[in-house]
Design brief:
The chain is of the alpha/beta class and 174 residues long. 26% of the residues lie in helices and 24% in strands. A 6-stranded mixed beta barrel has the order 1-5-2-4-3-6. Strand 3 and strand 4 form a beta hairpin. The longest helix has 17 residues. The relative contact order is 0.20.
Length: 174
């Protein structure tokens, strides 16, 4: 092949590398997926509140899924409460410390909970409005979840908090 072919090819590659945008990172390529924050970091999120009721879930008492999270555990407000998050950012089982609320374990998802948003469980809408509302808050990621949550795990997390022990280095089996 003539040398002019290789020169034109090399020039085209150089122009393409300068003019075309770089390839998207895996996080950008995931259709708007947020990168997962590592454990023991602080992440600013928009936090709202939700209840098990029709106003948040569309379900009424008596419905078989009333008060049951996406992960299958019952909603709870305790030392470690159930919260909803975008599982691309905070996988199920992720444990967060939320100032003004306490510990929350990601056990649920929500149709409007996308990106760096979380939804905190409260037993009633009155409590949502009185105690929380809608806030920007810096949450601490205590430990990353592995995609599952069980009642046994939540009970064990609550026992550790009651005992005043460190949650970050504990194993909570399913």
């Amino acid at each position: 092949m003539p040398a002019s072919f290789f020169m034109r090819f090399a020039t085209a590659l150089l122009v393409a590398s300068v003019c075309l945008p770089a390839a998207a990172s895996p996080a950008e390529a995931g259709a708007g997926a947020e990168p997962e924050p590592p454990a023991q970091t602080t992440v600013t999120v928009l936090a709202t509140g939700y209840t098990a009721g029709v106003e948040s879930t569309g379900k009424r008492p008596g419905h078989p899924q009333y008060g049951v999270t996406f992960s299958g555990v019952k909603v709870r407000r305790s030392n470690v409460s159930t919260i909803a998050a975008d599982t691309r950012v905070f996988p199920l089982g992720t444990l967060l410390y939320i100032p003004g609320y306490g510990y929350g374990c990601v056990a649920d998802t929500g149709s409007r909970i996308k990106g760096r948003r979380i939804d905190l469980y409260f037993p009633s809408t009155r409590q949502v409005y009185k105690e929380w509302g809608k806030k920007q808050v810096a949450v601490k990621v205590i430990r990353r979840g592995d995609g599952k949550v069980t009642e046994t795990m939540l009970d064990a997390m609550n026992e550790v908090v009651v005992a005043g022990q460190d949650l970050s280095d504990k194993k909570f089996g399913s």
